[in-house]
Amino acid sequence: MRSIAVRGALFVLFAVAAAVAVTHMNSLPAFIVIAPGYQVQAWLFETHRALGGFGYQATMVGVSALVWTLITLGLALTGRLLRRLMTSRP
Q: pLDDT tens digits for 23-77?
């Protein structure tokens, strides 16, 4: 149960960061935060399935939050695995 709460908190944290980044896309750090959602929205535009208005922002924020959450959790699990491998050797 604790793991689900941590994942949810990370997702909410990254969603808030991405929502702020959508309104400040003239700075490089904000663009890096929103880049995964921007890439998906560009792909949707090329395939003629792009969303407009609120759907545009929701896609960019949701995808960016999901990608950054998965990257963070992946790095944390990799670090845990490496730590376990390093401490289990005689």
A: 988 899 999 999 999 999 999 999 998 888 888 899 999 999 999 999 999 999 9
pTM score, two decimals? 0.87
Name the domain count of the chain. 1
Its domain, for residue 25, covers 2-87
Reference 10, options 70, 74, 80; nearest CA is 70
Going 73 to 75 to 80 to 84, the CA torsion angle's sign is positive
Do 61 and 20 form a contact (C-beta atoms < 8 A)?
no
Note whether 69 and 11 are within 8 A (CB).
yes
Distance, CA of 16 to CA of 79 (rounded, Å): 26
Tell me the C-alpha distance between 44 and 41, whole Å.
Answer: 5
